[in-house]
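Hello Y.,

Per our agreement to keep a running log of every chain we model this quarter, I'm adding this entry. I've kept the format consistent with earlier entries: sequence first, then predicted structure.
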Amino acid sequence: MNPLIRIFRTKIYTAIFLLVLILLVGVFGYMMISNYTAIDALYMTVITVTTVGFGEVVPLDNNSKIFTIFLILTSIVIVGYALSTITEYILSKDHIEELKQKKMQKKIDTFANHVIICGYGRNGKQAAVKLAAHNRSYVIVEKNKEMIEKLELDGAPYVIGNANEDETLVQAGVDRASCFISALPSDADNLFVVLSARQINPKINIISRASQESSYSKLKFAGANNVILPDKIGGDHMASLVVVPGLMEFIDNLSIVGKSNINIEEVAVEKLHSNNIVKTIRDLDLRRKTGCTVIGYKDENGEYIVNPEAELELAKNSKIIVLGRPEQIEALNTEYNIEQ
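Predicted structure for the entry above:
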């Protein structure tokens, strides 16, 4: 909790305590000094503290009048303190939220080549967890203000606003981002957001969620590089566990994110050699140096080759996919100074 909010809440608790105390003093005072019943004493205390101006239950003697003067003066101070504290808390809470949002926006403005995730539901949160495990900067765009506390608890940078509005996407830094994930529950909203993101940043890599298979082609046409259907993937995965259970269990045990349990890594060719000499997979000799095995190759046009030949030449802007035990992947990263 913010320290300022904690201070204000302490003041409010103090004000409530003083209000209750003045009521108790008034009730017992009138019962002892004026011989009022409990109900009459409470009535006199309330009309005195609130200064509504109703008449006394019975005429007051001198001692009761002096006590009433004391009660009025004391209650004015206490009620005034309570009102000012509550008002200050309400205004300061709004001000604190505004300051927190400005501080968050200032942090987001420093991001570049980050990932924007629209929607912090089940899919959006899973994406954020994966990106955080891979030390990738990301920003959550969420329109539901009730999610602020959850976002802050998870330590996720966020922008509160409607992702359908270009201004919200600009606040999230869509013009500087490298990837964009649209994980909204509605296919129509995802379609509109993909169109907006593609218009603002033509080079950004867009990944969108889809609930209906009929939305796949529309989202691709709108500018999404990849469209994921979670329900279809889940169904295929469960069916595969029936058809080829051993293979699927092996794949499930592979880890692609984390700090100490990675089994598969994608590495840009430029990180493996700094000169302009074209090398082959055999020239890299990763198996001997690190223990890792090259299982895939992605050329400069984005085309994949599974289990590439050892004599395959590694072109610029291409990538290789390697498989190994966690310690072998770590050896690869150490050998070529690849940051995780």
